[in-house]
Specification:
heterotrimer; A mainly alpha; B mainly alpha; C mainly alpha; B: mainly alpha; 11 helices; C: mainly alpha; 0% strand; globular
Chain lengths: 489, 317, 220
């Protein structure tokens, strides 16, 4: 296998970037929908395959701008996988949107091109060995998603895109300031120029940096990247962006972009943890995580739009993940990593289902969606399974990670476990209550379906993976997560 | 001999200041007229105006009180003392120990107080408008002035003007807080002297007047004295800005008569330049609405705050 | 000379803070655009001075880009847009100009208190430049928060970016990011101007974001 890889003219890690980049350029030239969708799927599939090879062989970090270690290989594989399945979903979903008239055919090239550009920027952000380059990639990802959220050009979509743009840009600006401060802390130790921004060099010398400067830098980075993760109270853009953009974008936002921002935060948390005099970043993350959890759980009861409901669920889960990483220690970190993976898969699956529900019922209002299991059995039951998963019912994977987290918290900080469990129960209640309304009971009128149905395949694959993970985690995967948990400190 | 000479030089400064003030006003009017492509009155015209006013009878309203009759002299006295104390051609003159920046602010404040009272004394509505507007601006201009004083004092280490001037000559450097103080002081100067954009000194419309409205009832010798006081105030502010921010050319303490003569020449030059710049600025800008002026002067207060804040936080600002 | 270069750098950075306050003070859009152009001019002077004292010639390019783009092209483009769209010439503020300026002073004080002790080990030019740059950033943020007009929010955001460029040039030897941030401000400016203002205008008759707020999710 490795011999085959060596025969290729380029390294797999470069391929993970080059393939989406070239595909983006090609797709801006393809105005037909079917051809464009196929090229999109092909490109995403190729990217995923190249990402898988990174599991086997990794590049030498001192040579290039990019690097792969245990932490980001998880994110890359997960990200490219979800990108691939979403492209499959998008291929059939967008066709229906065009038929209905929500999306004008002229925007196809733009949509596909931006999709691959987003994939490119996310991969760049995950693999960058230079904190400046990572920032650039996250900003590029923000910009592409802003443009895509406003795709439908309705009043609500424009407002959502504007809000997202303003809040996202402010967050990015604060993150840049934090990055500059990290450079200022590193410069006396490492010297001027590019070296003081290279991640592998930074983490090696972190113990010698000025702790006050690191503290201030982390606050800015947390505010900046935290906005992109969607932690309350910086979350204001998230529900609108999810609700008004096309569903594949909602899936990608929840499943991938939030993870990339969280990854950036984790990198800087590692940097701070390596310096013994800097303030412990844990309590800050724990506080923000708990606030997000409780806030989102309460808001779940008030939502009347189905996509907004699940957007707040994303905020809740991001809060949980931040809480887990803030707690630190091998068990909590493991729980956080597992939860992140499971959440990506489950949330994107839910958005696949929700997108189809919105199409067949013609509305996103929960009050108008009733009795899905009777009118559309496959769709209805998949949604039931998905929501059960995200609410944390066994035997799905999210239950495992939540259980690990709660037990770890009980063992170390019993007082914190109280709000944690309260938040989880609140969210559970809200989701199940809404689910019974949506899925059961007398069916509400649906649009007589005259077009093609989006493929259920990605949805089923994701849910199957989550179920398998809940029942049995393969040994190498466990060992790998434990390794990363140790790295995170 | 030394003492008599010192007192003589101080007296010369007092007289020089008084003598040049109307000339400065005439100069500014001439320059403004030329900029507006008119011929304009001669530079000596204000002297003639003062002479004419002094020879006329002072007409008083029936209900004018003792305050109305005496206010012009009080105003003139305080303004002249303040103007005479500001170092013009030489620092460290005999009475320079009294030339404290805060004291000068207080003297000008008392002058304004009497003027405002005099404006309200007769009971006409225009006098009332003028006084209330003047006080509105003063509410912000005085704190701004004090903050500027603090900023400059923190840099120079003293509030005494001669010491400040000496410090600025020895340590000429660009500093952020001094830049902020300069702009703040210019704004305050424009406000106090009732120049555009705060108030139009040449307006005939009572509704747009501030300073002119307060002195509307005065005539004859009273008006002459008040006009002279206003001219002194203008001279004072320009000399103040020149002394603090461009102190070069000033004769230092205990230097000879030649240096002092040179100081006089430079001082007159600075007055001319200051007057010219002020007139150019006036011609280029329009008068503000009255309710926008507090924001304008509030800006000067902010600048003073900012300058002081920066200095408190770090000595190198 | 050492002292003079330090003072000049501080003067230019302080000048940027001053111009940020002037931007908060404006109550007409066209005046705001002119002051924003002045902000960019002071920025380019500051960057050029840093390029001179750090002997970093690539920063001269940054200064030139800031001058041409942010001081000339973008204000002129926004000016045309305001005139052509016929939008409100006044800027509606949340809370009045006086309180806004006071909050601005508070933010400057905050940034001094935060940055100066934290960067105590760095060299003096960089330390105070960072504090002043953070002030400019926070003032830009204040402007975005207290304005209801989309154009003034954009101007606030771009002044925030100017503050970032100031911080990045103050950090001696920082690679790439200066050019990249300039490139991104180009991108952002064009995206914003081109896509949103015309689309928003197409949909509504005003670019008052208060009107856009009618679609806040709480009322659905």
């Amino acid at each position: 296998m490795t011999a085959f890889l060596h025969m290729l003219p380029f390294a797999p890690i470069d391929a993970v970037l080059v393939v989406p980049g070239i595909a983006a350029l090609i797709l801006t030239l393809i105005p037909q929908y079917r051809l464009g969708a196929r090229v999109n799927m092909l490109a995403s599939g190729l990217t995923f395959l190249f990402a898988l090879t990174l599991l086997i062989e990794r590049p030498d970090p001192t040579v290039s701008f990019l690097f792969v270690d245990d932490l980001n290989v998880v994110f890359i594989v997960l990200g490219t996988f979800v990108g691939f399945t979403t492209s499959i979903f998008s291929a059939s979903y967008i066709g229906h949107e065009i038929e209905v008239g929500r999306l004008k055919p002229g925007y196809i090239r733009f949509y596909h091109g931006m999709y691959q550009a987003l994939s490119f920027s996310m991969n760049l952000g995950l693999t960058a060995n230079n904190i400046g380059l990572m920032w650039v990639a996250v900003e590029l990802a923000t910009l592409t998603t802003v443009l895509m959220v406003g795709l439908y050009r309705t009043q609500a979509a424009l407002e959502a895109a504007w809000k997202y743009f303003i809040l996202g840009s402010v967050g990015i600006a604060l993150a840049l300031f934090g990055t500059i401060l990290i450079y200022m802390a590193a410069r006396p130790v490492i010297g001027e120029g590019n070296d003081a921004m290279v991640w592998t060099t930074l983490i090696a010398n972190a113990a010698a940096f000025s702790p006050e400067l690191l503290n201030v830098a982390f606050v800015f980075l947390m505010l900046g990247y935290g906005t992109k993760v969607g932690l309350a109270p910086l979350h204001a853009w998230l529900p609108d962006a999810h609700a008004e953009g096309p569903t594949p974008i909602s899936a990608v936002l929840s499943g991938l972009l939030l993870n990339v921002a969280l990854y950036a935060l984790l990198r800087f948390k590692m940097l701070l943890a390596a310096n013994p005099y800097a303030v412990a970043p844990g309590p800050l993350l724990v506080t923000l995580g708990l606030v997000s959890l409780i806030f989102a759980a309460l808001m779940l009861y008030l939502r009347r739009d189905i996509k907004r409901l699940f957007a707040y669920s994303s905020i809740e889960h991001m809060g949980l993940i931040a809480f887990a990483f803030g707690m630190g220690g091998p068990l909590a970190n493991f729980a956080g990593l597992l939860h992140m993976t499971m959440h990506s898969l489950t949330k994107s699956a839910i958005f696949f289902a929700v997108g189809q529900v919105a199409q067949v019922k013609g509305t996103q209002k929960i009050a108008d969606i009733r009795g899905l299991t009777e009118s559309h059995p496959t769709l209805g039951w998949s949604l039931v399974v998905g929501v059960a998963a995200i609410a944390g019912l066994p035997p799905m994977g999210i239950f495992t990670s939540e259980f690990l987290l709660v037990s770890s918290t009980f063992a170390r900080q019993p007082l914190l476990a109280i709000p944690l469990v309260a938040g989880l129960l609140l969210a559970f209640g809200a989701l199940i209550w809404r689910l019974t309304g949506i899925a059961f009971g007398k069916p509400s009128p649906s649009i007589v379906d005259a077009g093609r149905r989006p493929s259920m395949l990605p949805l089923i694959i994701h849910l199957a993976l989550v179920l398998i993970a809940g029942l049995y985690l393969p040994g190498p995967l466990v060992a790998w997560f434990q390794n990363v948990a140790r790295m995170l400190g | 001999m030394g003492l008599i000479l010192a007192i003589l030089v101080q007296g010369i400064q007092m007289v020089l200041v008084l003598a040049l003030a109307p000339g400065l006003v005439g100069f500014t009017r001439k320059v403004k007229a030329r900029l507006l492509r008119r011929q304009g009155p001669s530079i000596l015209q204000p002297y003639r105006d003062l002479l004419r006013l002094v020879r006329k009878e002072a007409v008083l309203a029936d209900n004018a009180s003792w305050l109305f009759r005496n206010a012009p002299y009080l105003i003139f006295a305080t303004t002249w003392v303040a103007a005479a104390l500001v170092p013009t051609f030489a620092a460290g003159l005999h009475f320079s120990w009294a030339a404290d920046f805060i004291a000068i602010t207080a003297l000008l404040g008392s002058a304004r107080f009497f003027l405002a009272l005099a404006g309200m004394d007769i009971g006409t509505s225009f006098g009332g408008i003028g006084s209330s507007r003047e006080m509105l601006f003063a509410t912000l201009a005085e704190p701004a002035m004090i903050m500027i004083v603090f900023t400059v004092a923190l840099v120079a280490g003293s509030t005494q003007l001669s010491t400040i001037a000496a410090f600025m000559v020895n340590h000429s450097t660009l500093r952020v807080s001094l830049g902020l103080a300069l702009i703040g002081l210019i704004i305050v100067a424009l406000t106090e002297n009732a120049r555009v954009p705060v108030d139009n000194p040449a307006t005939h419309l009572e509704l747009t007047m501030v300073h002119e409205a307060m002195v509307l009832e005065y005539s004859g010798r009273h008006l002459a004295v008040i006009e002279l006081a206003a001219a002194l105030k203008l001279l004072l502010y320009i000399s103040l800005i020149a002394c603090i921010f461009t102190p070069w050319g000033m004769a230092r303490q205990d230097e000879g008569l030649v240096d002092m003569a040179l100081g006089v020449v430079t001082w007159i030059g600075k007055l001319a330049v200051g007057g010219f710049l002020m007139v150019v600025f006036e011609t280029a800008i329009a008068k503000m609405r009255v309710f926008r002026v507090p924001e304008f002067v509030g800006g000067a207060l902010m600048l003073g705050f900012l300058g002081t804040l920066l200095l408190f936080v770090s000595r190198s600002f | 000379m050492e002292r003079f270069s330090l003072d000049a750098a501080h003067l230019l950075a302080g000048g940027m803070v001053l111009v940020s306050f002037m931007m908060l003070y404006q109550n007409r859009i066209l005046g705001l655009l002119n002051v924003f152009a002045a902000h960019a001019v002071v920025l380019s002077l500051s960057v050029a001075w840093q390029a001179y004292i750090q002997s970093a010639p690539h920063l001269f390019v940054t200064a030139a880009i800031a001058l041409v783009l942010k001081a000339i092209i973008i204000p002129v483009a926004l000016h045309h847009m305001v005139v052509r769209l016929g939008v409100h010439r006044d800027i509606e503020t949340v809370g009045g100009i006086g309180p806004t300026m006071l909050m601005g002073i508070g933010l400057v004080a905050l940034s001094m208190v935060v940055m100066l002790p934290a960067a105590a080990e760095a060299d003096p030019i960089a330390r105070e430049d960072l504090a002043l740059a953070l002030s400019v950033i926070l003032l830009g943020l204040l402007m975005m928060v207290t304005r209801q007009n989309a154009i003034s929010q954009i101007v606030g955001f771009m002044s925030l970016e100017n503050g970032l460029v100031l911080a990045a040039t103050g950090a001696r030897g920082m690679p790439l990011v200066v050019e990249i941030s300039v490139a991104f401000s180009v991108l952002v400016a064009f995206i914003v101007i081109g896509v949103f203002l015309f689309r928003i205008r197409e949909r509504f008759d005003t670019i008052d974001t208060q009107a856009l707020d009618d679609f806040r999710e709480d009322r659905e």
